[in-house]
Amino acid sequence: MGRIVNVIVAGLGGQGAIKASDILADAACRAGHDVKKAEIHGMSQRGGSVTSDVRYGEKVLSPMVPRGEADFLVVLAADQVEMNRPMLRDGGVLIGPDFVDEASLPNRRSLNVALLGALSHHLDIPEALWLEAVRAALPDRLHEVNRKAFRIGREKAAAPRPG
Amino acid sequence: MQKQLLSGDEAVALGALDAGVALGTGYPGTPSTEILEAFAEAGGRAQWAPNEKVALEVGLGAAFAGARVLVTMKHVGVNVAADPLFTAAYTGVSGALVLLTADDPGMSSSQNEQDNRRYAVAAGLPMIEPSDSQEAYDFLQAAIALSERSHLPVMLRMTTRVCHSKTLVERRPPLPPAPPPNFERDIAARVMVPGYARPAHRRLRARLAEVQKENESSPLNLWRRGDTRLGIITCGITYEHVLEAAPAASVLRLGTIYPLPVDLVRAFAGSVERCLVIEEGDPFFVEQIRAAGIAVEGKPEMYRFGELSVERVRRILAGDVSPEPPPPRATPPRLCDACPYHPVYDTLRRLDCIVAGDIGCYTLGVMEPYRAMDTCVAMGASIGVGLGLRHVLPEAQARRVVSVIGDSTFVHTGVNGIVEMIYNPPPTGHVVIVLDNGTTAMTGQQEHAGTGRTLEHEAAGKFSIEGFARACGVPQVHVIDPVSDPKGFEDLLVGRLAASELALVVARRPCILAAADIRKWDEQIAEKAAACGAVCGGC
Q1: Domains in chain B and their CATH numbers?
Q2: pLDDT tens for each residue of B264-287
Q3: What is the reported pTM?
Q4: Is B109 on the interface with A (CB under 8 A)?
Q5: Domain containing A145 — which CATH number?
Q6: What is the domain extent for residue A119?
Q7: B223: which strand partners?
Q8: What is the mean pLDDT of residues B159-163?
């Protein structure tokens, strides 16, 4: 069976963690993968912790990423990083909220899409499909802001590390 | 046809559309809420009932008339609907009636983690359970077909992880349409006086025996032939965890939860050296399989609590009963910063009230800094529990007791408590505060009878909370905005607590998350009414 890519998106209610995972799952689906996505809503709108698991590949079984098996952990709130770190596998990639400078974003509410941009650098999904998924998930008036945010994250991840 | 990435809830809704479901009804409750919303959005006819009992009764009436009906609720909603449910098993249906129960193992947003597979046995109704969204779509259609074949209501059980996980779904050709609804008198089948109910019970058992026979070879059950040293019997989402944790094992995935296909289980258990039942929640299969004289292993008791996962299934397979790593310390939810309930809870805390609480966002008044809730048990329970406390507490304590209930919860089952209150008033009187934020906020801002708008936000008749209380004979009924007049709210409450009268205070202010939408919907309704009035002159 082919390798499965495991991603966890975490944040606080209202930050767009679930929206980000929707976009990722849609992009993976557009790229022809089997995809599953799991999260708990319910109380999430009231500012509590939110995590959403996305798994894609040839054939996905459980929709939930087992502890210690996430390849990527995307976190939107600084205080949610440590709590979710045990989900990451050895050598897995953490993309935290400080990965992009919020001030550089056209709208700070696009942090979720900016971090997806950073994630996209690591994944084998064509950029055009990412942008289609971003477009499909958001109202027209937010397209330009989020397209820019996605590019900012993606370019930052592609840039050589300082030092 | 192209596959779509859908949640289990969305898939059920699409399945209902393609199965020709004529009416969807229910009451919002996580994780079932999105089903009726998605069904309406896809073009189906869906409506919110005041509570699950009424929803099931409306559904039953429509199914008596020959229609295909879907009734949705969360697991605890079935408790409310249980009265008509058990006797609907006797009456049976002429069309198709599917009751969807959305269970919440792990209690992501519920007050208990009851396992509603037990209801199938208790009521004597067929139950089936899907493992992913494709099956949610397929099983809804299978449930409709089974209900039509067996003339029994059918329970479709899902759990939070199936309801809210998204997986790929391919649509199938629609079911052939049902004949148009038509009333055919069948008094002996539908009037459950003892003389008709006695044969009806025998008829139910005979119908169940037919379904049991059918389940033995049902395509809803999957036998995955693998290594014969280990066989695992499972159902629902746990099937997916099992495939991942034990890829080589033989697996029997039961899609037919009840009646149990005993011969199939016996054959499976006989084909493997070690047969293990891995099921989330109660030892439901284990008990039935053992009662049938088939030797199987169950899971250790510690795995009865909470959801299962790939990790937990691995532990069960390894016989590991060592303590599990503690769950991460998640940030708890809290009242929104601009929630209109802050001044209410601030007052309740400062007055040191004994608060009989209820179910909704406002249950979060129990959190810091208020800690202003002392009981929360079931929908509508705040009023009865508050009255009970008042009846027996010493007077000084009794005077501090307040029942706090939300608007949607009041419509759901709060009304019964008001009837009790005027009939059996405590000597110190009582004070009920209805937190009316104009929406069913907790589950994602659904409409209810008190908002005066339908599920799809169109104009509807409006239930008046204060009008109801006055009509019941509550002597003191007040409406106040606790945000614009917090001092007035506090003075009012102090005065009502000091008096030995019955009082109902509606603390009315729209939910901060819903306020803009509520304004938009009301404007749309007003525009439509104006456009209509221009044509008809204001009918």
Answers
A1: 4-215 (3.40.50.970), 222-318 (3.40.50.920), 342-525 (3.40.50.970)
A2: 999 999 999 999 999 999 999 999
A3: 0.96
A4: yes
A5: 3.40.920.10
A6: 5-157
A7: B252
A8: 97
